[in-house]
Amino acid sequence: xxxxxxxxxxxxxxxxxxxxxxxxxxxxxxxxxxxxxxxxxxxxxxxxxxxxxxxxxxxxxxxxxxxxxxxxxxxxxxxxxxxxxxxxxxxxxxxxxxxxxxxxxxxxxxxxxxxxxxxxxxxxxxxxxxxxxxxxxxxxxxxxxxxxxxxxxxxxxxxxxxxxxxxxxxxxxxxxxxxxxxxxxxxxxxxxxxxxxxxxxxxxxxxxxxxxxxxxxxxxxxxxxxxxxxxxxxxxxxxxxxxxxxxxxxxxxxxxxxxxxxxxxxxxxxxxxxxxxxxxxxxxxxxxxxxxxxxxxxxxxxxxxxxxxxxxxxxxx
Length: 317
Fold this sequence. Notes:
Strand order of the largest sheet: 3-2-1-4-5-7-6
Shape: globular
Structural class: alpha/beta
């Protein structure tokens, strides 16, 4: 756990503008790096930290308890944030942080089957209690379903070839491990791709992981809830690591934080009043020092939005 470095840590903490008596949510607890820094700054407030990985919660609780007792860990998907917070009587919060994707410890623990760098049973479940895992995706999905997953979630140009190769291999024997899957992917790709920099299975593994954990739908649901949960003046900070996540965050923020495009030739009856303000017009990227220390920060993008007024429909709730 000590080797885990939280990405864009200072930028997130600065972006949240933490109040000592505020209520904050870390929607993706992981190993508690961001949560620890939030907790250090709240003397009379409270932190609610979510994770669907029970192992992450168990490890982080010890780290957080050494700082303060003003926190509650919740074993749940962050798409159930609103419902779970209500169970604690929390209807509004002052800030929410999301650090998306798979955590470094999950990747580094070979037995979890997330990484193409270690041989393990195909798993990739963030929540070890759920039924769908990578083995089921690889061995039971139809050719068409595999193509959809690889193309939509991995943006893999050779999705069809890889899907066919998986289909052929499993007719002989099930594909049980990460290295077996890597071999199938390698065999399906042309030499020009294999000779390129970067691991040939990276896109496919990302795609299968997103499918197993329903990550993109989870994100869309969670963003909507997060925007509703914020108090006026509250901020939502989201770190994404690939273009699919970042596109969802960018579009969600733009929808509520940018005025709608109007036909300039038509008379404007009333200027649109926005309920949210984009703090970042462009995403915040890691500085050179962090890039050198933490390889994972290279693809990280931080976007921040603030609620500036209560939407009319929320006032009526």
